[in-house]
Amino acid sequence: MKRTALAVAAVVAVSGCGASGGTGSGALADGKTFTMSVGADPGTLDPALTVLTAARAVGRFLYGRLIDQTPNGDVVAGLAEKWEADTTKATFTLRQGITCADGAPLTAKDVAANITYIGDPGNKSPLVGLMVMPGTTATADEATRTITVTSGAPDAFLLTNVGSLPIVCAKGLSDRSLLAKGEQGSGMFTISEIVPNDHYTLVRRKDFAWGPGDWQTSQQGLPDKVVVKVIPNETTAVNLVLSGQITAATIAGPDQERLLGQKVEHVDFAAPLGLFGFNQADGLPMQDPAVRRALVQALDLTQVGKVLTSGKGRPSKSLVTIEPRPCTGDNVGPNLPPHDRAAAENALTATGWVSSGGTRTKDGKPLSVRLLQPTVLGPTFTATAELIQQTWQAIGVQVSIQPVDAAGLNQALFDTGAWDVSMAPVTLALPSQLVPFAAGPMPPQGVNFGHVRNAEFEEQSRQAATMPGSAGCEHWNKAEAALVKAVDLVPYFDSVVPTFVKGAKFTVSDGIDPTSIRMLAS
Which of 140, 159, 364, 469 is the most buried (most CB within 10 A)? Predict the structure, then answer.
């Protein structure tokens, strides 16, 4: 199967359990419908075979997790009531009485099968190497409701990674076509209607009693239904929020000003919008680090970032942006090549790309760049791509902008390889989740879409993986810094993206946390 690209709002890398604060106030109301927007159709809802943002947003409502996490990083019960983990083994004990969407019991054997399926590289889950190490297996003791996980390789964040997997039920494991339709879940809602490219309707399970921590079923304000509307255009989404036709919408582009001007409540999260990936496949110009460095050095990244984020962003410090970050510090700023157009031009000339008639050539071939520009991330990406094009063409580089939707991005990065520089951002919750993108197999076997080969990154991440949790942060930070120094992956600007809400309150944790939604009285 084709791998799935990971980019904010179009598609997203699997995050852990990080959360942010809620919003809203007033009396709570029962029996209401919560309506939210997504920017693209989710496609398959099989949680082991997709990392699309829209699919994960819907799946958050359908599939439970073994553990949850508070905004300050404390681990609390999910499907599991007890847990223990180091870097190679983890155990989880299920709560009693958990059932599936069809009423069948969720067993320890079912959970173990979820983990083992993803850990088997032959199943080609995009989560293998990202949340589950290749070769990871799990066994079950039904008498004690205990799952024992043996990681295929040391994993510093084994508890968070495996504990955050969406868990499906037995019938779905035997017939994954049911999972593609959102059936056979263990979560708070069940799917009741799918109209592709229009809307998805979900109904709350009244028997759901395994929310995070000591979550109670008798709480007021829980929505009876959730409707997820597919709204690719942010202007339309804003209009629907203002008119009260949808409850919540994430707005990354300039249309958010209309909602901010109306003082509409919002929950914010950091999103790494500004990222350059380079196609270093054999025979392509981006294989040369001097060319990559020159292209970055030619850009005023502060100016580019301001255009990208409508002046609301901030310079990146890390590829990991989801809070709470296990490792802090600035791995980006000190390691970026400084803006210097003259130095960039001299570097290209020194590598044999000589300017002739305004175009740089080498061995009779022009230096040309195919620039991938995601179309589902808002209009600022178009303006940013044009600014990059103008800047690089001014130093003799031919640039063709290739606008792509989520499917086109997936095809280019993980199938055809017909690209040179990508603007698609990658969202990460843990530094270990960077490994498959920067050291793992190349497509179609893996998600190392840039064909990155960085010995320092591999060595530092290998050492970090043997240390539990934040104990390995010194090595994780050095690993990430090595990628930036080599201009393998270059994050340069983050955006603070608001999710606006009228008539409800909630927290954001890898999307809207369904257990946190409380509907407000009109």
Answer: 159
